[in-house]
Amino acid sequence: MARISYIQEFIDACVNDIAEMLGQDVTILDENGIRISGTGYFNDLIGKPVPEGSFFKKILQTGKPGLVYDMKKSDSQCISCKFRTQCRELATIGFPILKRNKPVGVIGVVSFSAKQKKRMIDDHEKLIRFLSHLSTLLENKLILLELTKHAECEMKENIPHQPDKILFSSIIGYHSSLKDVVHKAQRVANSISTVLIRGESGTGKKVLAKAIHNESKRSKFPFVAVNCAAIPENLLESELFGYESGAFTGAKRGGNIGKFELAHKGTIFLDEIGDMSPLLQAKLLRVLQERTINRVGGNRSISIDCRVIAATNRNLEEMMKEGTFREDLYYRINVIPLTLKPLKERREDIGNFIELFIRKFCNELNKRPMRVDPELKNWLIQYNWPGNIRQLENAIEYMVNMAETEVIGFSDIPDYLLNQEDPMNNQRGFSLEERIFEYEKNILQRYFLNEEYRNNKVLIASELQISLATLYRKLEKYKLVTK
Ligand SMILES: Nc1ncnc2c1ncn2[C@@H]1O[C@H](COP(=O)(O)OP(=O)(O)OP(=O)(O)O)[C@@H](O)[C@H]1O
Q1: 313 CB less than 6 Å from ligand 1?
Q2: Range of the structural domain that residue 53 is part of
C-alpha cells in the first residue's frame, strides 16, 4: 500500500512552492499524524507527531476539512489539545488527503501574523477549493504508484520459473537453533517427503520454505504459496484443486486449474495449515496419500507431482486433542518437522537483523547510510518482539523513514513499541519484584519518550500523581532515557 511518505520528494516541492505562492506556512502530516513536511516554523518539527486532540488529528479521524481562527474559544476544534494555550498559530486551514475515501494525511496552511490571518479568513473559500484540488492530485499520485507497483508484482509472478533469490545462505541467523534447522533443511531439500515448518507468526517460515524450494532440483519449476487462513473455506477447495466448467455459480467457462496443478514439478507451500476446515483436511489427506486430485465438479483423477511444505503457528497437538485437527493428516504432514524459534529466544540474531534492515531500507528509500545509536540497539535487543522478524523489519522501516540524521535514536522509534503493556511478555524465570521493576520502568520511559510531554518533568509528575522529587528518584533508579 502506497503511503503518503512514499511521494516525499513531490510533497516537499509542493509544500515549498505553495507556501511561497500563498505567503503562509504549509505543512503535511502522514496517516499517523507525523509531520513529514513543512515550511518555516514547521521545519524543526518534521518527523514529530502532532499532539493528541489537536485539530489536525481530528481531521485524520473524521476526514473533514476545517478552518480555525480562534484556538482559545470554547467551541474551537482545538479545545481538546493540551498545547492550545501555548500555540502560536493564529489561523489554520486543514484539509484531509484521502485515498479511496480514507484519510491518509493532512495538508495544513497556517498563519502566524495578523496580516496572514486576515488574508486567510477573507480567502478561506478559495483556499479550501485549492486544497481540495491538491488533495485529489496527491491521491491520484498515490493510486498511480500503487497500480504501478501492483503491475510490477503481477509481471514478476507471471514470469514462469523466475529464479527467487532466497537461498539457505540468505537466511540470517547465528543462533544454534537456527543453524540446526537450516542444516536439516539442507539435508532434505531434494527429498519428496513433506516438511512441516512450525513457528510463531513472522519467524521466517515462508523464507525457509522458499530456500528449501530454491535449493532443490525443483527450483526450475514453480513455488506456489497458499495461505489457507486467508481464503474463505468455500473457495479454498477450488483454489487448491481447481474446478471444471459449471462447477458452481460464477465458475469460469472452461474451468480453472488449482494451485496443486500450478505447482506441477515444483513446490506447494500450504501456509497456516492449522486453519484448514475439517472437511478440507480430509480432502487434503486423500490428495497426499493418493497423489492425485479431483477438480471441483469433475470426476477425473489428475496425478500431481509436487513437493508439499506446510507451515503453522498453531499448536496442532492441542488441536488434535480438541478434535479440530485430524490426527492422520498430522502424521502425514509432520514427516520432517522444522521449528523456528521466536526472536526473543534468539536475541543474538537481533543485531544482525537490525543492520540488515537498515541497509535494506536506506537503499529502498534512497537515504544515506545510517546506523543505530548503541543504547537504542541494546534496547531493541532486549525488546520482546511479539511479531518477531516481521515486526522488527517494520519498526526499522519506520525508524529509517523518521530519522533526520544518520544516527537512528530513541526519538525515531514508533510509539507502539513503547506501548507494550507487559514488557516481560510472560517470560519465565523472573520474580514478581523484577517484573514490577520492568513494568514501572516501562511506564515511566513511555512518558519521557512521548512527544506530548516534551520531557516536561512537572507535567509528567502531575499526570502520574507523584511528587517531582519521586520522579527524579525514579529517573535515577531506572536510568531512563530522556529525549
Ligand atoms: N532469516 C531471515 N533473514 C532475513 N529476513 C528474514 C528472515 N526470516 C524472516 N525474514 C523476514 O521476516 C519477514 C517475515 O518472514 P516470513 O513471511 O517468512 O514469516 P512467517 O513465519 O512465514 O510469517 P507468517 O506466519 O505470519 O506468515 C519477511 O519480511 C522476511 O523477509
Answers
A1: yes
A2: 4-153
Is residue 420's pLDDT more than 80?
A: no
Q: Please tell me the residue having the least CA distance from ligand 1 atom 28.
A: 390
Which amino acid, residue 335?
Answer: V
Q: Give the end of a domain, one of 105, 124, 153.
A: 153
Phi, psi of 119 (to 5 degrees): -65, -40
Q: At a CB cut-off of 8 Å and minimum separation 6, what does 208 contact?
A: 171, 181, 182, 185, 197, 338, 340
Q: Is 271 in the pocket of ligand 1 (CB under 6 A)?
A: yes
**Is the model's pLDDT at 451 over the cut of 80?**
no
Asked whether residue 137 is assigned to any structural domain, the reply reads yes
| Residue 271 Cα: closest atom of ligand 1 | 27
Mutate which of 166, 212, 390 for ligand 1 pocket (most atoms within 8 A of beta carbon):
390
Final residue in a domain of this structure, among 292, 323, 341: 341
Q: What number of CA atoms fall less than 13 Å from residue 213's CA on the CB side?
A: 31
Report whether pLDDT(24) > 90. Answer: yes
Place of cell 479568513: 121
| Distance from residue 122's CA to the centre of ligand 1 (Å) | 55
Regarding whether 318 and 420 lie in a shared domain, the answer is: no
Ligand 1, atom nearest to 392 Cα: 12
pLDDT surpassing 80 at residue 235? yes
